[in-house]
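Below is a filled-in request sheet from our internal design queue. Each sheet records the structural input a requester submitted and the sequence that came back. We keep these sheets so that new team members can see what a complete request looks like end to end.

REQUESTER: design group, bay 2
PRIORITY: normal
MODE: inverse folding
CHAIN LENGTH: 463
BACKBONE (tokenized):
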């Protein structure tokens, strides 16, 4: 799958990116291609890309009943299931929890819930990475980490391919027509993986009606609640009491999250994308300036050349470069407008994100812990872009001066909770943590400047 997408569309997951290229991922497709020097190659992939996209679109209809049942069996019988438990016991645990609705058995889909080939492929990739760790016979830790990263990269690559080449209405066709919690009920998908998949199918938050906003908030929180309920039971069954006291540890791990952060904050954090909270203006200007210098260079060459054929080639190249400049400028303007609308939306919502009426005073010291555990960490280890989003969103929350958001406390707990994780994650995830910490620490270093310290004190004491 990785080779097919890479050879037919030119989209690849690059492991080594410099700081400029990472920041350019926050922009649109033109900035991304320019920063990666992929613009010419991307245009050459036009026909094979259309063919691959056509294949996925033609197979976006429901698979037949027999094939569907076979996919269901492969997805639920021990493949890609719980982190803590063999997949064969998922159904039993689900029945004990009574989580299936309207009398439906969790692993049987109704006709309205039927899957397409594309959605089956996406779900298989999203769940398969966990099975590499918990349901395989591999004993070499480095090999397991490598396979985990490869599956994760292919999943990101496929979602990126579909989102780049389709609009929101078309992207929706690739996804099952069911509520989000069924990803967990049917396949025990992790919440962050579900949200990564469906994020491109959402309207911008500022365009949602109040009823749409409330509905998605309930669906997003239901995904986490369902996942927590299932895995609390499974984790309890697998718990080794020789290491920790069982009841206190499980109760502490699976506390009611909504007593510490609000459902609004969870939904907004999980629904927004990097392009919504950060516009890499300096990177846009750098790429525009680079293209302008190329244009000036070619114009000078035309003045010195008497060869008409070479002059003709240069003129065509100049036209392409000017087109690239116009595209970058137009894209930057669109990104700015979108960012301004998102900031305005967050300004209106900020007083409700950590509402005192919803969070008991005794729990406010634990806000940072739960924000890291359920919002920041699950998302920042997914990819480089998600790591940068987590950093930029956290900085934006600080700049918005959200009530009850303790800046010093979350910085302290990030060092306590996130930094040690570098020792127990894969190489790909460790790189993502490094990107997150680099951006956060750069902001902290900026605070050390005496000229901005007064503003920081004002922010802290107004929280």
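RETURNED SEQUENCE:
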């Amino acid at each position: 799958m990785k080779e097919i997408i890479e050879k037919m569309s030119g989209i690849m997951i690059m492991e080594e990116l410099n700081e400029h290229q990472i920041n350019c991922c926050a922009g649109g497709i033109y900035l991304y291609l320019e920063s990666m020097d992929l613009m010419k190659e991307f245009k050459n992939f036009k026909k094979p890309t259309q063919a691959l996209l056509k294949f996925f679109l033609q197979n976006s209809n429901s698979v037949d009943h027999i094939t569907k049942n076979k996919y269901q069996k492969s997805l639920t019988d021990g493949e890609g299931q719980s982190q803590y438990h063999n997949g064969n016991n998922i159904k039993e645990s689900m029945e004990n929890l009574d989580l299936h609705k309207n009398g439906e058995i969790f692993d049987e889909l109704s006709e309205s819930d039927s899957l397409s080939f594309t959605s089956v492929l996406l779900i298989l990739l999203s769940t398969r990475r966990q099975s590499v760790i918990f349901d395989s016979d591999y004993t070499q830790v480095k090999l397991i980490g490598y396979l985990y990263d490869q599956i994760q990269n292919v999943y990101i690559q496929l979602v990126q391919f579909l989102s780049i080449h389709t609009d929101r209405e078309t992207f929706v066709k690739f996804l099952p027509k069911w509520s989000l919690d069924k990803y967990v009920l049917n396949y025990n998908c992790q919440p962050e993986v579900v949200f990564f998949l469906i994020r491109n199918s959402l309207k911008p938050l500022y365009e949602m009606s109040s009823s749409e906003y409330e509905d998605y908030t309930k669906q997003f929180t239901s995904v986490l609640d369902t996942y927590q309920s299932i895995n609390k039971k499974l984790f309890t069954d697998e718990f080794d009491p020789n290491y920790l006291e069982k009841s206190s540890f499980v109760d502490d791990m699976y506390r009611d999250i909504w007593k510490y952060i609000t459902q609004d904050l969870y939904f907004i954090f999980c629904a927004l994308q990097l392009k919504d909270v950060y516009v890499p203006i300096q990177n846009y200007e750098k790429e525009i300036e680079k293209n302008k210098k190329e244009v000036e260079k070619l114009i000078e060459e035309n003045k010195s050349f008497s060869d008409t054929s070479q002059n003709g080639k240069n003129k065509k190249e100049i036209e392409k470069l000017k087109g690239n400049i116009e595209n970058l400028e137009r894209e930057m303007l669109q990104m700015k407008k979108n960012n301004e609308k998102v900031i305005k939306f967050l300004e209106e919502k900020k007083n409700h994100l950590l509402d005192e009426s919803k969070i008991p005073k005794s729990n406010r010291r634990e806000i940072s812990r739960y924000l890291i555990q359920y919002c920041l960490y699950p998302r920042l280890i997914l990819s480089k872009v998600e790591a940068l989003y987590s950093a930029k969103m956290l900085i934006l929350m600080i700049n918005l001066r959200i009530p009850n958001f303790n800046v010093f406390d979350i910085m302290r707990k990030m060092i306590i909770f996130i930094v040690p994780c570098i020792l127990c994650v894969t190489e790909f995830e460790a790189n993502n943590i490094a990107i997150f910490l680099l951006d956060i620490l750069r902001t902290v270093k900026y605070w050390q400047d005496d000229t901005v310290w007064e503003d920081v004190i004002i922010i802290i004491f107004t929280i």
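SHEET NOTES:
- The CA atoms of residues 21 and 36 lie 7 Å apart.
- The chain has a mean pLDDT of 79.
FILED BY: M.R.
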